[in-house]
Design goal:
CATH architecture of the largest domain in chain B: 3-Layer(aba) Sandwich
Largest interface: A-B, 34 and 40 residues
Number of strands of chain A: 0
Number of domains of chain A: 2
Helix content of chain B: 25-40%
CATH topology of the largest domain in chain B: Rossmann fold
Helix content of chain A: over 70%
Order of helices and strands of chain A: HHHHHHHHHHHHHHHHHHHHHH
Distance between the termini of chain B: 43 Å
Number of helices of chain B: 10
Number of helices of chain A: 22
Shape of chain A: globular
Strand order of the largest sheet of chain B: 6-7-8-3-9-10
Number of domains of chain B: 2
Distance between the termini of chain A: 51 Å
Largest sheet of chain B: 6 strands, mixed
CATH class of the largest domain in chain B: Alpha Beta
Oligomer: heterodimer
Structural class of chain B: alpha/beta
Chain lengths: 545, 296
């Protein structure tokens, strides 16, 4: 090649490279856009809703003494974070929605990041891509950048919603930045984990554990006076000590941004020296066979359940152990501060003054993990079908109905185990601080949410039969959608019938009150009918193998 | 038991507006090794999915040993299947996968399975995710052969195997035939089909274009004939079955022959033929003829 004609091919190469990067960005965007839109809308919508209804729900009930009592109570601080500016709509919104929103954005970002990086690589979707001229580290970074950008948009959406509802711009910006940075941090951590671990499940699991630890550090740091410094070690803690609408401290967020940047910088380094479809930890290349639970279709369904169930039970168990440990502190506080008990009653949590009333209110929330667990398990079956892992089993003398029954029964067993674990953990927590809570009462309260989990299972089976691409979304709807619907209907004064569409409206606060048997049986029958319609669809459709 | 291992009548499958399979009538006699050929997208895998009850027919029906293919509880007791692209549970080792398939499948001859593991040189201690394409195929092949099911359905089972394993596969198919098992083999490896199959069906654009014994199929198709003669050239104009007559030298002639050779031999008798070679077409050449027809 001569010096004269060298520039032309170089220019062409550069143009080609730009085109390739654009195509790569578009590939990543296509894979996360639906979920990203949901999270971005949720972040803005939730913040706007709470901020606009602040005057009607909280309004003048807050005086200085009440606020001081709230801020001093370690149980309140542990569960909901330290309340710092409840006298303003913005501060109240941060306290009420901040942690939930940060967890939602963080979990979404980490799952999206591992799905489109390690998941796509595991499934072999990247083989052709990486045979092209774009190196692995560029492909990984491009995907990470897209998830990070989506996380930043959740922050923009939060800040815009809070500014539009008239709260001070400085606080709104700081809170939005906090939410966004939590998302960025976990997107970066998950992408890094996806370079280290050779499978998607391990990468997701490690990052979820990191998120859980971060949440726990925030709770302990908020709840125990001497350990406040622990919050500097947790993304959730850092957003808490930035104190939006109060001190508006930028330094903690700068620390979080630096930590996220460090993770992002480490990704290309970690990706550069590994094999495609490999990680830093090599998978085991051989082991002795473990033949337990391989003898039948139901046995195998159970075998596949055990690993995920252990993870879910550990997470739910730790949370409800904490709920039990805080029982006395929380109920004493509410008994001493009737204004907050009134406020809680307005929000649908009546009877918080007694231990049983308090755990009953907390058990209502258990319907969400139990329902999502059921949906996610059925979605895993749908994925196994698409990935052709089930093909050889379908080629055996097993009817689809029998197969579906085994999957559904194992998932239901898992949901029962999960709720029982929560009940047991609450009881252990409550007993260890001497709170008056019977084991039967704790278990009754926990399993009382099973009808909602059954609705989720029924909806997921329905989707498996008729909408197999949307199993986790449709399956989560009764629990997550129902909860949001009830919350929105309660706080916006929507017509009564809107609220009754939510299964949560029909859930009795057990063990504080007796179970609502009529509603529970009704929900179980509905769940069974919906599942039966799903089974018909599953029997008649073509398998997606 | 029905005389036909597989029988389809007017089998139609539509995916939306796409007609994947157009009124397929197929009969596979029990005990035969049946080759199922066709270009990509001809409908071979769709047919197999219908035979296994994994897809539902738009019209018509498929029967396995006389039982409707949708009744998988009955039909799958007498068949074993190896898909084109085998996916295994990533966390199960080869041994665990074989145990699962053996215990949920139509039964297993454990002794034979161990022998097959040995013959296919399969390391069963490795987890599914670490297997190569060929090794995943070996796991599925060992599981299928070890069932001793009366019908073995193979969808391109050897695409990832090396020649040594390919030979093992053909050996195992021959053993299955000796035992009276029926083998339904969809494959692009025409040499393999030619060496193991008794009968072949050729599918094109969802329609069956040919079903014949492998030997007859050759006879139905053009052979290349080359003759060397002394003196005047033989008169072959207008002889039935003779086409593309070509003079390749002063005393040599080449032509293609379709159908029975008697008229051509009578024509050749008019000259002093000193040498005669007849080259029968390979399955590959026959198949390429069909390919050409598709592209035309």
């Amino acid at each position: 090649m001569t010096a004269v004609d060298a520039p032309a091919p170089q220019a062409a190469r550069a143009a080609g490279q730009t085109g390739a990067i654009h195509a790569l960005t578009w590939l990543a965007v296509r894979q996360i856009r639906r979920g990203a839109i949901v999270v971005i809308v949720l972040a803005g919508g939730m913040s706007a809703m709470v901020a606009t209804t602040y005057a009607s729900t909280v309004g003048d009930t807050m005086d200085a003494a009440a606020l001081a009592a709230l801020a001093e109570n370690p149980a309140i601080r542990t569960l909901f974070g330290q309340p710092v500016a409840l006298d303003s709509a913005g501060g109240f919104t941060v306290w009420r929605t901040g942690t939930v929103l940060a967890v939602v954005v963080g979990v979404w970002a980490l799952l999206a990041a591992t799905r489109i990086t390690r998941g796509a690589e595991d499934a072999g979707h990247w083989d052709l891509l990486l045979a092209g001229r774009i190196p692995l580290s560029t492909v990984v970074m491009r995907h990470a950048t897209v998830v990070v950008t989506a996380a930043l948009f959740t922050g923009v959406s939060t800040a815009a919603a809070l500014t539009a509802t008239g709260t001070p711009a400085a606080g709104a910006t700081l809170h939005g930045a906090g939410v966004a940075l939590v998302g960025v941090f976990f997107a970066a951590a998950a992408t890094l984990a996806a370079q280290i671990f050779p499978h998607r499940a391990a990468a997701s699991g490690a990052t979820v554990a990191l998120l859980g630890t971060g949440l726990l550090l925030r709770m302990v740091g908020d709840g125990v006076d001497g350990l406040g410094w622990l919050r500097w070690l947790s993304p959730f803690g850092l957003t808490a000590i930035s104190r939006p609408y109060h001190d508006n401290r930028a330094l903690p967020l700068v620390v979080l941004a630096l930590a996220s940047s460090a993770l992002l910088v480490a990704i290309p380094a970690a990706a550069a020296h590994r094999d495609v479809r490999g990680g830093w930890f090599a998978p085991r290349t051989g082991r002795a066979p473990r033949l337990r639970l391989l003898g039948s279709i139901p046995g195998f369904a159970l075998r596949r359940l055990l690993g995920p169930l252990t993870g879910w039970a550990a997470g739910v168990g730790v949370y409800y152990l904490l709920i039990g440990l805080l029982a006395v502190s929380m109920t004493d506080f509410l008994a001493d501060n009737p204004r907050f008990a009134d406020l809680a009653a307005q929000a649908g949590f009546a009877g918080l003054g007694s231990v049983e009333g308090y755990v009953a209110a907390m058990f209502v929330l258990l319907a969400i993990p139990a329902g999502v667990f059921a949906a996610v398990r059925v979605a895993a079956t749908a994925t196994a079908e698409t990935d052709r892992r089930l093909t050889l089993l379908y080629a055996g003398p097993v009817t689809r109905l029998r197969f579906l029954t085994a999957e559904t029964a194992s998932t239901a067993t898992g949901a029962v185990t999960l709720t029982a674990t929560a009940g047991l953990a609450t009881w252990i927590g409550a007993r260890s601080i001497g709170a008056p809570l019977h084991l039967e009462a704790a278990l009754a309260g926990a399993v009382n949410v099973l009808p909602i989990a059954a609705l989720c299972l029924g909806a997921a089976v329905f989707a498996l039969g008729w909408l197999p691409r949307a199993v986790s979304l449709v399956g989560s709807l009764p629990a997550v959608g129902g909860f949001l619907l009830q919350a929105i209907a309660d706080s916006t004064g929507a017509p009564h019938w809107v609220g009754t569409l939510s299964p949560f409206t029909h859930l009795a606060p057990v063990p504080d009150l007796a179970p609502n048997w009529t509603a529970s049986v009704g929900m179980l029958i509905t769940a069974g009918a919906v599942a039966a319609v799903g089974a018909i669809g599953y029997h008649h459709r073509d398998l997606r193998t | 038991m029905d005389a036909f291992a597989v029988r389809t009548v007017g089998l139609i499958k539509r995916y939306g507006r796409l007609l994947a399979l157009d009124a397929l009538d197929l009969a596979v006699p029990a005990g035969s090794v049946f080759g199922f050929l066709g270009p990509n997208g001809a409908g071979k895998s769709t047919t197999i999915r219908l035979l296994l009850g994994m897809a539902r027919p738009t019209a018509g029906y498929a029967r396995i040993f006389g039982t409707d293919a949708q009744d998988v509880r009955v039909t799958h007791r007498s068949l074993a299947y190896v898909p084109a692209d085998v996916a295994l549970w990533p966390q199960l080792t080869g041994a665990e996968t074989l145990e699962l398939l053996g215990r949920t499948g139509p039964g297993v001859d454990r002794g034979y399975r161990d022998e097959l593991v040995e013959r296919f040189a399969l390391d069963v201690s490795k987890p599914g995710r670490t297997y190569s394409t060929g090794n995943r195929q070996k796991v599925a092949l060992v599981a299928a052969f070890a069932t001793r099911a009366p019908l073995l359905v193979f969808d391109e089972p050897t695409s990832g195997l090396d020649p040594l394993m390919e030979r093992e596969f053909q050996h195992a198919v021959a053993q299955a035939r000796e035992r009276g098992q029926t083998v339904f083999l969809s494959s692009h490896q025409l040499a393999e089909v030619e060496s193991v199959c008794d009968r072949v069906a050729i599918l094109r654009a969802g329609k069956l274009v040919e079903v014949a014994d492998v030997a007859n199929l050759r006879r139905l198709h053009r052979s290349q004939v080359e003759v060397t003669f002394a003196g005047t050239a033989p008169q072959l104009d207008g002889v039935p079955g003779v086409e593309a007559v070509e003079r390749v030298g002063p005393t040599r002639l080449r032509f293609t022959l379709t159908g029975p050779p008697a008229p051509a031999l009578r024509g050749l008798a008019t000259a002093d033929v000193t040498a005669l070679t007849i080259h029968e077409p390979t399955l590959e050449e026959i198949f390429l003829d069909y390919y050409d027809e598709v592209s035309r």
